[in-house]
Design a protein that fits this description.
Strands 1-3-2 form a 3-stranded antiparallel β-sheet. 53% of the residues lie in helices and 11% in strands. The protein is globular, with a radius of gyration of 13 Å. A hairpin with a 5-residue loop joins strand 2 and strand 3. The chain is mainly alpha-helical and 79 residues long. The longest helix has 10 residues. The relative contact order is 0.15.
Amino acid sequence: MKQKEQQENRVTVKDVAEYCLVSNITVRRWIKDGKLSATNLPSGHHRITIAGFRDFLERYDIPIKEELFESEYKKKEEI
């Protein structure tokens, strides 16, 4: 998979925090506690896959805005 495609399939801590209406610190705590799966970049920043984020939302019964995940569905349909 190309690097650009990989980046498009990931969200930032800030993105998750804004979606869930919590602070970046809370999202980092979720990652540290193993509640939210993330990749740690060499820069120290985290990236969360779209699929991993959706799993997190479902697991903790957080409402899902389908428009956020439309690109994920389109890619699955292409396969």
